[in-house]
From TrEMBL:
Name of the protein in question: Chemotaxis protein CheW
Gene3D superfamilies the record matches: CheA-289, Domain 4, SH3 Domains
GO BP annotation list: chemotaxis; signal transduction
A cellular component term, taken from the record's GO annotations: cytosol
Gene name per UniProt: cheW40H-2
SUPFAM superfamilies the record matches: CheW-like (SSF50341)
Lineage, top ranks: Bacteria, Pseudomonadati, Pseudomonadota, Betaproteobacteria, Nitrosomonadales
Highest rank taxon of the organism: Bacteria
Annotated ranges, domain CheW-like: 12-150
Amino acid sequence: MNVEPMAVMGKPDQLLVFALGDQRCALYLSAVDRVVRMVEITPLPKAPAIVSGVVNVHGEVIPVINLRKRFDLPQRDIALTDQLVIAHTARRPVALVVDTVTDIVECAGRELVVAESILPELEYVQGVAKLKDGLILIYNLEQFLSLEEEESLDQAMAPL
């Protein structure tokens, strides 16, 4: 899938900003369906290592991606205060465990830098938002799962 356009025709992009420990991250708001409180995660046998299990959100069974594993961050137990960002890729809905959602920000084109201009082949990162209080990495959901992980997840979820 192509990289989403950044600040097309002067219209600011909206980002959902969330925290993973001390790190602030973001997703394009257009990829986010909702944010919900943490619920019990049901383990999913034979799922890829970065999939913690599945959750039922309004009757839809959604795989939960462990961002700490994906980004090699220190692991910790999931807390009741954590939140699930329900988002979608071109192939499926996903739930991302985050410590907390902190903000929705608008960024104009001059505040956004495409990842390739910083470091070609920067994995999982679509760009960087330059805000007054620091930089925020904007993640690309389409790259969170490798082809092998997608196929493994499809097989694990087939009986559901």
